[in-house]
Write a structure and sequence with these properties.
Layout (H helix, E strand, L loop, with lengths): L2 H6 L5 H4 L5 H38 L6 H5 L10 H8 L1 H33 L5 H9 L6 H11 L11 H8 L15 H26 L3 H9 L4 H12 L1 H16 L3 H6 L10 H10 L3 H30 L1
Helix pairs in contact: 3-16, 6-10, 6-13, 10-13, 13-16, 15-16
Length: about 325
């Protein structure tokens, strides 16, 4: 073949020879590294959170209420929602729900009030603000169990000569009419349990409100004052509307924490005290007695209560973001 014939042959285009990356390779390069990065967390959460939630939900639909049944020595069967209906018919469990509702009201109202009050005082640029912030936030650094040990002494139910804690203080100052059995009072004792919880979380709510106050531009305050607004009108028409997202977040946080109250009650009152019992302590007692399906049913009911509180908040936040 001559050189002329070789030049006449078609030659492949070097640009066309470069193969384009496939769609699968493109997606892998884009999404592969992030998926590999989060996959350990996803796997662990899937096993130790969602799988265990599913197992508890399935266990709550069975009659596994003895240790031999739980170990598989004796058979158990599916009873569907019988455990839930039995709980809702039990006066003791209804009393625990009532206690939880009362605790939630007192706890949320107390933390919101004191948290806002302290934030409002510090918002005035008080002297030694850093010291006050440290003092108010310090209770959050204390374990609920350690705080419960101290408050167990402060809320001692003895009165008169045997009084100690706050009752002893009232005895010494002549305020004997304030002495009371605190958490051992039937129907209302749970309100006393809310006192240490308010003491421990008010600093966190204060930090939320203080951040909200400091995030409001000074121009809005100056404009309101130029328009002739007094201090009350400034807070009512300018500052309070700007704090509505903070208020909503604080309510959601305090509300869902109140639904899960357990350790402070166990530390102060113990597991066998009837007066301050709540669903979480009922769940613990059922599990302690080997009534695993009953305990799982109580746990799922608490989970649904928390979801009923958090999901509307997440939907609201998603709508605001859009």
């Amino acid at each position: 073949m001559t050189i002329k014939d070789q030049l006449a042959l078609p030659h492949p285009d070097p640009i066309r020879q470069v193969s384009k990356p496939s769609r699968l390779n493109t997606r892998w390069r884009r999404y592969g590294p992030p998926l590999l990065l989060i996959s350990p967390s996803v796997i662990l959460i899937g096993i130790f959170v969602y799988y265990l939630i599913g197992s508890s939900a399935w266990l709550s639909l069975r009659d596994t209420n003895t240790n031999p049944q739980f170990a598989g020595v004796e058979p158990s069967q599916t009873v569907w929602f019988e455990n839930y209906t039995n709980l809702l018919r039990d006066p003791a469990f209804l009393y625990a729900i009532r206690n939880l509702a009362l605790y939630t009201v007192v706890f949320v109202a107390g933390t919101m009030f004191f948290g806002f009050l302290w934030a409002w005082i510090l918002e005035k640029r008080a002297k030694a603000e850093g010291v006050f912030r440290t003092i108010l936030l310090f209770p959050m650094a204390i374990s609920p169990v350690a705080a419960g040990v101290v408050w167990r002494w402060l809320l001692n139910q003895n009165t008169g000569e045997k009084a100690s804690g706050l009752n002893r203080l009232f005895e010494m100052t002549g305020l004997t009419f304030l002495e009371n059995p605190w958490w051992s009072v039937l129907n209302w004792g749970i309100a006393a349990i809310a006192i240490p919880s308010i003491w421990q979380l008010s600093g966190y709510v204060m930090a939320l409100f203080l951040a909200g106050f400091r995030g409001i531009p000074d121009e809005l305050r100056e404009a309101a004052r130029v328009d002739g607004a007094n201090e009350w009108q400034l807070y009512r028409h300018v500052l309070f509307p700007q704090l509505s997202p903070v208020v909503l977040s604080a309510l959601i946080i305090c509300g869902h924490m109140s639904l899960k109250v357990f350790d402070i009650i166990m530390t102060i009152a113990g597991k066998d005290t009837y007066a301050p019992r709540v669903p979480a302590t009922v769940m613990y007692q059922a599990f302690y007695k080997g009534q695993y399906s009953i305990a799982s049913a109580v746990g799922i009911m608490l989970l649904l209560a928390v979801l009923a509180l958090i999901i509307p908040y997440l939907v609201h936040v998603a709508k605001e973001d859009k």
